[in-house]
Amino acid sequence: MKKNKLRMIVMSLLLIIAIPSLAEKITIQEAAEMAIKNNKDIKIEMLKTEQEKIDVDRAWANKFFTVGYSGSAQGHLDKKFNRTGEAYQHYLTLSQPIYTGGKLKLNHEISKEKLTLAQLSLDKVKKDTVLSTVQAYIDVYNAMSTLGVLQKSKETLDENLKTQKELYDLRMTTQPELTEAERSVASIEAQIVEQEGNIEVSKEALGILIGVKNSSQIEIVPFGVEDNFTKTVKLDEDLAKLPIENTEYKMAVKQNDLSKKNIKIQEADFKPTISGMVNYGVLQSQDKFGNIFKTRNFTTSAGVKWSWDIFDWGTRKNNVNYAKKTQEISAVQVDQTLEAVQANMKKTYYQLRSLEKSIAALQLAVQKAEESYNLERERYSYRLITMENLLQSETNLRQARVNYAQAKLNYYFLVSKYGAFLD
Q1: 226-272+315-422: what CATH class?
Q2: Which of 45, 134, 143, 412 allows an S-S link to 199, with CB 3.0 to 4.6 Å?
């Protein structure tokens, strides 16, 4: 009994293992959320942001005093290299920057600017990743929609081939007609196989973006497309919002701000640096090692240290001029970025308007192609047209359906792209 029971448990476990995992249904919104959570490009940008936070703390700490320890041991030798004496000392040094020409303050400000720039870069990568995910999701949807159209066509062509075989057996059609029907079925089967491969490739690309390893198990969920999107937005108002809300433009402005501060950093090299120091310990050399630990030998000293580079063959001047040119380039890039973003937003808007008209026309084209195909089938039944004419009509219907589906999916992507300009 126990052996039989154990055998049943083992068989049950093997059966569970053998059952393939169910497909994972993922909506387009869920795919975008998974990409933000799992995408490696985003993780890299997050780590870079953390680095910049560390750099802010480091720049802040550089403004304040540091404490260091110094110690030395020396042996004195005569001309014959015989030891004649020893010298030992050790002490603590507290050093506080007093004046650096504004470098420490500027470095702290620059580190905070770089942190803001890193955060903007992270936002941009997130936005780009979401758009890429939407496109990848749509690619899968498009491939599956096309496969559906092809499979529907195959059903029609299979029925047509069946009819042709029956007619051929009754000697009511010719061998070329039957061969053409067989060719059409073979052709559509090849297209179906190719499209199934496209689906797998598209799913793999989507899986990489959203962090799903077993991409073949991804099952997308059909989604609707908002009609007449352009009627809900005002292009002129959105264009006016770009300098405030667009990530790319804000990054260009922030880069220009950094360039301005870099000029000041280079100009600070013309100024002297001053720091204060306090030393405490055995400042006078002792002839025995043990004497450096006796409190009577401990002393304190305080002072100021300064330095000033006076002549360097124009190196500092060239550094300033180079920084100014860099800033001039950055200023031009600010305008260039805004112009490019504005042009892309306008282009996307007018593409959407064009697609709104096209989608309606493509929908009518599908209806017309369906009517035409039904008519051609009837005409063929009376042998008023050839098999080639009938198959061409079916091909036209298939392409009309594909064009309509692709246009609607492209419209959805452009809606997402338009919204991304203001993120």
Answers
A1: mainly alpha
A2: 143
